[in-house]
Here is the input.
Amino acid sequence: MASKGRGRLINRPTKTGEKEYDKFFIYLPTELVRDSAFPFKPGDYLLVEIDQKKKELRMRKFDSTG
Here is the structure.
């Protein structure tokens, strides 16, 4: 059971036509994501919020259809 792990924020610049854009990913440890308690699955839409006081990033699932 892995209820926490160390992840990493990665920037993968992407070129589209003549412009280059930053594309950011948050990598999560495999053990964490494969844990039965992990609340998300690939393809889920996530709402991401920043708590500036606690300096935390929070994510929760949301319905993308409305």
In short: Residues 8-61 form one domain.
